[in-house]
Amino acid sequence: MNRITAGRRHPLARYAVLLLALGLVGGFYTLLAPSSERADAAIASGRADDVAEGKKLFQQSCSSCHGLNAEGTAQGPTLVGVGAAAVDFQVSSGRMPLANPGAQAPRKPPAPWVNADTVRQLSAYIQSLGGGPTVPTDEQVDPAKGDKARGGELFRANCIQCHNFVGAGGALTQGKYAPPLHEASPKQIYEAMITGPQAMPVFNDSIITPDEKRDMIAYIVGVREEPNPGGAGLGRIGPVTEGLVAWIAGISLLVLAAIWITAKKRQAHQ
Amino acid sequence: MSTGNVPKPIASTSSFLDDRLGAGNFLKRNLRKIFPDHWSFLLGEIALYSFIILLLTGTFLTFFFKPSMSHVAYEGSYEPLKGVMMSEAYASALGISFDVRGGLLMRQMHHWAALLFVAGMMVHALRVFFTGAYRKPRELNWLIGVGLLTLALLEGLTGYSLPDDLLSGAGLRITEGVAISLPLVGTWITFFLFGGEYPGEDVISRFYSLHILLIPGILLGLISAHMILMWVQKHTQMPGKGRTNTNVVGAPFYPAFMAKAGAYFMFTFGVIALLGTFAQINPIWLFGPYTPADISAGSQPDFYMGFLEGSLRLMPAWEINFLGFTLPLSVLIPALVPMGVIMTGLALYPFVEQWVTGDRSEHHVADRPRNNPHRTSIGMSAITFYGVLWLLGANDEIASIFHVSLNWTTYIGRVLIFLGPLVTYVITYRICLGLQRSDAAVIGHGVESGVIKRLPHGEYIEVHVPPNEAIEAHVRGKAAVPMIAGTETDEDGIPPKGMRGPLGRLRAKMSRAYGGEKVALDEGHGHGHDEHAAVGPGKDDKSLTR
Q1: Residue B384 belongs to a domain
Q2: Per-residue pLDDT at B6
Q3: Are A175 and B403 a contacting pair at CB < 8 A?
Q4: In 3D, which of A199, A196, A202 has the Cα closest to residue A171?
């Protein structure tokens, strides 16, 4: 039995081997794995090309459904020609990446990697594939610059049949729905109109001009921020909640009152 | 006798009035009128007091409302509608909401009072139905009640159409759709109602006359008749100690019942004021002015019209095309059939019941619902039928709030509308019989005393004691549901006279099923331990029976 063999049999040898193996795996991983730190550094210094970075992001987070080159698969449609506005709308509202397939992609908190820069890069990549509607400027979506009254008329004529008169949303067929507009940012409202996400039709600039779109945004944002002068808003969905309140609060209170009043019986001899 | 103590100004004034109006005699007779005491007897008063509040707030609203459909540009203080073209009616309703002091509160109280008016009528009607208080001699008062309910729906429809907002316009459009789908006369009726092509210029002012003059006038008259008949026929009472068909046990109108009724008015007024203050109702400024081209998702009518909305949503798109004429069954059936089933059913029920039971006697003691199981089951089935329609009227809100498919709510509703009432019937019937058995057990066995007794051979039993006197009298107030005597065939197999022919045989069969005693009160005897009935409320047990 030489020294090496004796060393192999040492009680601590197995721990030494385990440590060595872990160290090697860790070391190789650090060398080979894509470094997000370095990517962040590149974004911060502004050196990285938006399209190239966008393509990387796309291949990481979107390509499993939309295909490696956004050509579309059985799971997801092609994104060629949808434009930057569609990307900005879907990703910033958390609808994409999709958590699980269903009748409709719900609004949810955006993925952890989503921020203004990554959305810009991803949008630049999709825009580079085949054009399409672009992201509106801040001025185009500024509610303060719109005419609420005119916007209200346009909103009632074009939107409320699905989104309800205060934008509370509504049901569509087979589990699809028009989402409530309470959380949508002015930019997202604008983008939804020009890209027509999911079940929504496209309202392009020849149907509703950019000025009119801004008026509608002014109305939607103005009404949802407006207080309810009559008390609790009851969800602002009209007679359904009002009827519930009339029965549950009104009739219940009055029945309790009736029980209370008649519980006091005349005491003849006490 | 005691007039000597009354101060002269009061004594002389009252004798002046008494000599000319006969007031003293009238008051003496009526102030001592006895009213039975039960919480459910106050439910109708919700409707009565809401009606008074409706008259008061409604009068306030007429001071500022302009029932005109002429077009104006809005110049009031609600900014998101500034400069928008709208009818004068809508503009003035906005004016009441934003520019008249206290106007919004009055509008909201008026609307909440309207909801409670109809809801109060409904719960009152259900109480009367389930206790059989519509039986002879009160059938006519029941019919007046059914008329009141129908008129209240019409009053509500004309009322919420008046502000001419987008939501009420949807209801108006359905009204037009129903009118125009009537065979032969539809077109004429529609043009007559709207004064030309829909929406025309006349419908608001016409609805206004109906809403503030004609229908409330009839309502007021019918309510007075309803009250007078109730007063003259006396109120029914729940079964109980010393209560018979020939007396009324309760408190006199003055002072006891008057105080209770006055307090209940205050409660109703308080609840309506609370709702009007803290819960926003019908925010017409959010809906926008009515334009026939616009419609909103989630358009619903007020709750009392919800069952009609639901039936319209449930109905498959059927229509008959024949010789160039179209009969739109998809509109006619949902508009007329459920309403017809419910209102006609309500109106005819007392008479159908009499026909089935052959009962022509007077009833002043109310039934407990369990003691007439078929009636209770029929009532619960009707509630289920109505309830499914009502629920389906809001199927889009249900679909969007609970994230279920809109289509499936409709499919399920189409099954439930037939299956639901049947299942409810069977379940209610079984529950009624179960409750009757439990009553029989109380009479036969007594109630559990909480005392555990060990018998000499080691068995433990719980001592039962006879129920308290009031409870026993209440339970023993049960009478068998009347049925036609002698419906059986004689020895030659010939049914008795009047029971021949298909209708007669049906009547005999229904009478046997509907009438009779399902569970006799004495059935509780005979099984169990002798000890149960043996322990009486003797002196020793006083502490146990409390």
Answers
A1: no
A2: 80
A3: yes
A4: A199
Burial of B208 (0-12, 13-18, 19+ CB in 10 A): buried
- Share of residues in chain A with pLDDT > 70 (%): 92
Match domain A136-227 to its CATH number in 3.40.640.10, 3.40.50.2300, 3.30.70.20, 1.10.760.10.
1.10.760.10
Question: What does DSSP say about strands B85-87 and B251-252: parallel, antiparallel, or unpaired?
Answer: unpaired
Searching chain A, which residue's CA lies closest to the CA of residue B73?
A149
Which residues numbered 152-171 in A keep a CB inside 8 Å of some CB on B?
152-153, 156-157, 160-166, 168-171
The predicted structure's pLDDT at residue B316: 93
Q: What is the pLDDT of residue B254?
A: 84
- Tell whether B127 and B206 lie within a shared domain: yes
Query: Per the CB < 8 Å rule, is B281 touching A230?
Result: yes
Decide: B146 and B346 in contact? Cβ < 8 Å: yes
Nearest CA in chain A to B115: A246
Q: What is the pLDDT of residue A34?
A: 59
Tell me how far apart the alpha carbons of residues B144 and B150 are, in angstroms, rounded to a whole number: 10
Tell me if A230 and B167 make a contact (CB, 8 A cut-off).
no
Tokens of B465: 């004691």
Q: Which helix (H) or strand (E) holds B3?
A: none
- How many domains does chain B contain in total? 3
Report the amino acid identity of residue B264.
Y
| Distance from C-alpha of B403 to C-alpha of A172, rounded to nearest angstrom | 11
Residue with the two structure tokens 């089933």: B341
Between residues 123 and 152 of chain A, which touch chain B (CB distance below 8 Å)? 148-149, 152
Nearest CB to A174 within list B38, B123, B405: B405
B206–chain A Cβ distance below 8 A for any pair: no
Q: Splitting chain B (546 residues) into consecutive groups of 10 residues, what average pLDDT does each group show?
A: 70 84 81 89 96 97 95 93 94 96 96 97 97 94 97 95 94 93 91 90 94 96 96 91 88 87 96 96 94 91 94 93 88 93 95 93 93 96 96 92 92 96 97 94 88 92 89 89 80 77 87 88 54 44 41
Work out the burial of residue B539: count CB atoms within 10 Å of its CB; fewer than 13 is exposed, 13-18 middle, 19 or more buried.
exposed
pLDDT of residue B431: 97
Interface of B with A in 110-139 (CB under 8 A): 111-112, 115-116, 119-120, 123
Is B282 at the interface with chain A, CB within 8 A? yes
Residues of chain B contacting residue A163, judged by C-beta atoms under 8 Å apart = 297
Tell the CATH topology of A39-135.
Answer: Cytochrome Bc1 Complex; Chain D, domain 2 (1.10.760)
Separation CA A202–CA A191 (nearest Å): 10
Question: Domain boundary residue among B366, B386, B404?
Answer: B366
Q: Read off the pTM.
A: 0.87
Residue B454: domain span: 446-545
B403/A156 CB distance under 8 A = no
Q: Are residues B56 and B10 in the same domain?
A: no
* A contact residues 207-266, partner B, Cβ 8 Å cutoff: 219, 222-223, 226, 228-234, 236-240, 242-243, 245-247, 249-251, 253-255, 257-259, 261-263, 265-266
A81 vs B150: which has the higher pLDDT: B150
Confidence of residue A219 (pLDDT cuts 50, 70, 90): very high
